[in-house]
Amino acid sequence: MTKIGWIRHGSTSWNKEKRAQGKSDIPLDDEGKADARKLAERLQSDSWDILYSSPLKRAKETAEYIAEQLGLEIHVDPRLLEVDGGQIEGTTERERIERWGEGWRTLDLGIEDPSSILERSRNFIEEIIQKHEKMNIIVVSHGAFISHTLRELDAESINEEHMKNTSLSEVVLHEGKWKCELYNCVVHLEE
After folding, report:
1. Does the model's pTM come out above 0.90?
2. Catalytic residue chosen out of the listed positions 9, 142, 148, 188
3. How many other β-carbons are positioned within 10 Å of the β-carbon of residue 42?
4. CB–CB of 152/19 below 8 Å?
5. What's the fold here for domain 2-189?
6. 142 catalytic, yes or no?
7. Residues comprising the binding site for substrate?
8. Gap between the Cα atoms of 179 and 107, Å rounded
9. How many helical (H) and strand (E) elements, i.e. helices and strands, does the chain have?
10. Domain boundaries, the chain
11. Which residue in the list 82, 89, 112, 170 is annotated as catalytic?
């Protein structure tokens, strides 16, 4: 049985300002670093074999805390980048409405198409399950990318809930079918 633990990076200043980050390379803020440490401690309670991360600072910094705690090497993979936000990157909802109007979501602002996101995701998953069959894999990535991926893997178990910073979602491949066994969990922040 192959298991993938999908982790959204820790918080950044842009998360707090509700700015679209996309592929902008924003580092963790102090809270994001503290939460990443708590997550890394939590992950010790399970057995993990390999660690992948998006190359963006906020994900890679989160992965560094995990790598240090679990003694794993980080494998950086550009397919794990956040959804490209095009022209909306760096803006808040209010700024988008001021700039493009209430219907900004219907405009072509260079935002990455869902089919492109899912193609990256499928390619990554196919490769890692071949390389790491029957292993427990941690993947540190980004909220929109993880949401699209999880809905593709197990639409029945996934809702539209916003992915929380440092959340852990686990999917298990059993007899050729993915099943989400844990979704958007942040119990390590509640202790």
Report:
1. yes
2. 9
3. 19
4. no
5. Rossmann fold (3.40.50)
6. no
7. 8-15, 58
8. 35
9. 6, 6
10. 2-189
11. 82
